[in-house]
């Protein structure tokens, strides 16, 4: 019986480490090749619209708006924001839901390979994948992929598809205000429209624009070089 158990666990380990090697190889390929799809796109109940646009072709205000809105410590952390994680765990201990604390790196990993919802299991996988992306991809590639796979509406993925859908033009020509309006869609993209902002979202856009000015136009230069 003991021999059988050892054989079973040996087989599990054999399968796990080979799956891990395969995952790392896939991530290495995606370091250079645009992802043909993502887990979130495959799970979308709506027709998917997405067009890849290299980050070097975007105005600097576009990634700056996303960082200002979603993860201002993006240039400095290594995939995980431990200060935000600590606050989220404190809220959870106080009876709140498990929410917040996700960096752009974690959101990229989640969109690319995981599933919606909140659980410690998914958060753990998300954290491990985020660290892998930081090692294998680097900040610029992480931000580029995020800008191209994040959902901005019902079946609308990436800033290029979002810009064409909402503004009728390529994301190459987005203004700072338009970029900020797209940025505020991200927490609930299927129920928001940058052309029909609620009073709360209008205030949020103004806040994002203030953060962009405070961070400065060169804030992401170290990331985008």
Strand content of the residues, in percent? under 5%
Tell me the overall shape. Answer: globular
Structural class: mainly alpha
The overall pLDDT average reads 90
Q: Uncertain spans, ≥5 residues at pLDDT below 50?
A: none
Radius of gyration: 19 Å
Order of helices and strands: HHEHHHHHEEHHHH
Helix share, percent: 55-70%
Walk across the major sheet and give the strand order: 1-3-2
Give the end-to-end Cα distance, rounded to a whole number of Å.
Answer: 58 Å
Question: Tally of extended strands?
Answer: 3
Largest sheet: 3 strands, mixed
Count of helical regions: 11
Could you give a short description of this structure?
By secondary structure, the protein is mostly helical. 58% of the residues lie in helices and 3% in strands. The protein starts with a helix and ends with a helix.
Describe this structure in words.
The structure is a single chain. Helices cover 58% and strands 3% of the residues. It has eleven helices and three strands. The chain has helices at residues 2-30, 39-42, 61-70, 82-93, 104-113, 120-136, 139-149, 159-167, 176-183, 199-215, 221-224, and strands spanning 49-50, 151-153, 156-157. The protein has a three-stranded mixed sheet with strand order 1-3-2, covered by helices on one side. Helix 5 crosses helix 7 (139-149) and helix 9 (176-183) packs across helix 10. 32% of the residues are buried.
